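User: Hi! I'm a student and our assignment asks us to look at how structure tokens line up with a sequence. Could you show me two examples?

Assistant: Happy to help. In each example below, the sequence comes first and the structure tokens follow. Example one:
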Amino acid sequence: MYSKLITSMLIGLDGYKIEVEADIARGMPSFNIVGLPDASIKESKERVKSAISNSGYSFPLGRITINLAPAALKKEGSHLDLSIAMSILEANGVTIRKIPEELIFIGELALDGRLMPVEGVLPMIISMRDLGFKDFFIPIDNSKEASLVSDVNIYPAKTLIEIVQHINGEKLINKIESSFDINLKSPTYDVDYKDIKGQESMKRAFEVAAAGGHNILVIGPPGSGKTMAARRLPTILPDMTFEEAIECTKIYSVAGKLGTDGLIIHRPFRSPHHTASEASLIGGGRIPKPGEVSLAHNGILFLDELPEFSKSVLEVLRQPMEDGEVLISRVNGQSVYPSKFITVVCMNPCKCGYFGSQVRECTCSTSQINNYLSKISGPLLDRFDIHLEANPVDIKNLQSGANERSSKDMKEAVSKARDLQAKRYKDDGIRVNDELSGSLLKKYIKISLEDEKILKMAYEKYNFSARSYNKILKLSRTIADLDGENNIKTSHILEALRYRALDDKYWRR
């Protein structure tokens, strides 16, 4: 007695077709799974056996062999339980009708036959739909994310019995309708930049960062509003497009952090503690999962008190900040996760926090200051487009009743600048100025001979790297976009240079 069904498995965010073959032959009772299964699938033998028996079906007594093909691909995850159980039931004649091979079964089984929610349902359904499959049986608790996919039939079930009854035509499962809306509602926030008194230069820097997707480093004494400004950055970023929202939702689905939520409409804001490990930041594990840099995709990665992080952890940030993706390698293959985000970091200038402050005297020695600042290496520092110094707020600003610029006003300016970039780069596969590189940088950034001289002087004075030089050009383009200018002017170049001239005070003393 033989059966063959189809399920799926993820590598990164890509779903692959997996054939589940069941053969029940005469002989001593045994239950073997072949096809390069990992430990979680080997354990599924006990779950499947108990689920079938406790659902009221007889478990076959012969020699049972389950083959998971292709054999060269390492099979991982408990979501294969349902397909294994259904293939055994069909081979044993429990299903009256032959199960069509175009049906996809995804789900983990509890010992009593209940279907348990699994991770990665959304990307699996999208990938299998793209391969031509339309009908999916999934756990009912995964319904919300599954309903985001169009042009498919989703059958959510609570138990193994419900699926068998549906296949036999005894009691049909109501399929769920797609409930996605490409016109997303604007997210709401409890914080606003108008809460910050004064600090107009800091607000401007964050506005530039949001408009061009630039990384920003803020250094200053305690209480100067660094963290307050950073946590308000999501309020001025443009609303996510439907495509961006789907990208984020797929990542959170794979990471098991989607919960009962459907589509993610808020741009991610990830703020890992300074005790975070390399694996938690970049991703990894026996079955590779996305880390903080991927969970921040299309949003913000915020690292507060940057020098308190392990130096090795900080150094692994360099590659995803530059490439916009993370490659996690294992013996059995590689997983790639996207990681395009704005990096925002805040730090004190020294251990006591008051080096260079005019408000309070620093108690650190020169060696202590140097050791503290040296935790941020030159290559990492070079990857931040904006280096900003935050100064203490003046008492006049705190007591002033003047209206501060709101997040709404800043978001409108940022959105207009992003719209200009979207039109400019519509045929180039990039979205924001920070993604410009190589030939595209030369194609879209033109400056006058006078401005070239200014940049040459600054390059020699501050010992800029080639990367820093290119970042200044990209910053200038963003500032021009915020001003609604087609051409980069001298004022835009000078403002961009101000965001890169801070190093002399702290790192090149």
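Example two works the same way, sequence first and then tokens:
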Amino acid sequence: MRSVHAGRLLFLFFACFTLAVSGLAHEPEAEIKKLSFKHTTLQNGLEIYSIEDHSSPTVAVQVWYHVGSKDDPDRRSGFAHLFEHMMFKGNEHLTPEAFEKLTENVGGENNAFTAPDVTVYNEVVPSNYLEPILWAEAERMSSLALNDANFNSERDVVKEEYRQRILANPYGEFSLAIDQKSFAAHPYKRPSIGNIAELDAAQLPEIKAFHSTFYRPDNATLIVVGDFKASDLETWTKKYFGPITRPTAKIPRVTVAEPPRKEDRHEVLFSAKAPLPAFAVTHLAPSIRSEDEAALDLADEILSGGQSSRLYQSLVYEQQVAQRVSFSADLREDLGLLTFHVIVASGKSLPEAEKALDDQIEKVLKNGVSEAELDKAKNRFLTGKLMERETNNGKASALGEAAVIYRDPNHINTDLAKYQAVTANQIKEVLNKYIADKKKVLIEYLPEAKKEAAKPEEAEKP
């Protein structure tokens, strides 16, 4: 898994984002210093993980709530994302601008993100401001100003975000359609950003019920990394988080299983905004905790990690049938998705681009990857992980991901070795395991002008 921050969002692909991290091939495997962390659990169920690091006078605080877009109520997509915004509206002790004052006014920063499996809030501040940040996080966990005014204002903010990120983006609706068309039953098909019609239909009592159901200490993990004393952290967490009541009701979990695909499916969507045809090919993939995760992530890097990658070199540079091409191994908590995405080059046809992609897929399934490609992919991953660990917030993110998503906090100290141990033959094996002779979903996204040439049953607007 690259990072839950990105969530492997397709918006990044269609916004021309390219990650370029350099590394030297054929270097000996680096010995990675292990991170020493402490773990404690309060009586109300709040999990606390911490790493002391006095190298700079700063501290990072993250609160991971084990609730994401997959937990949105039926016909209410976007609730988890809406709450990402609502959590900044304060309560009787916190003004709506409190987190900005507690962070930015002292030279720090704060942010939040919603993913399919989690919602995360984070702050980085000078270490002498740790106590007020812990107080503020406890305040918004225990009580929130859930009233009509705040609900309506933040709902409008989310709707405007939807308009900008989805409706104003020529391929925004395509990015949402990929999950919606690829998952038959699992709520991963719901868009994290939400749906305007369903947000408009939401009522305040539903919002309050969502908060009381998921925003509770026994569904949260607190991560603190940086310049602090363990004794102070223990005192403050007990003081501010300890009194929060643990609800007696069980936390509802998604139990829907995605059925195996029995046949290939072909979906055709039309858009008045898309300047060029695009298409995606998806295959179901395992959970992020699968033993195949490292090999799939490295396959992701080899196939589409930058302009020197296989797919870019073949489809964009050599054959010039694609304007952009990408492959993502998006492994999530319950299951994942392997997705090839292509925007067809101007003057080229959809069949040409689809055949070029099929040929490259067949080639890698048959012949595998080279040692040089694998070395490069490993170095990019290793460099990225090491760069992440250079900051307190990066360490906090890695530890939170390990504790909540992987359900193993020590994963932070074992994951790199798994990547280093992957062989070229394993890359070939996992790609064949999840792609060869497996049922696929082909999603074509065509300019409106091509609608007349489509079969009546294929004509669908996103």
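Here is something you could point out in your write-up. The mean pLDDT is 91.
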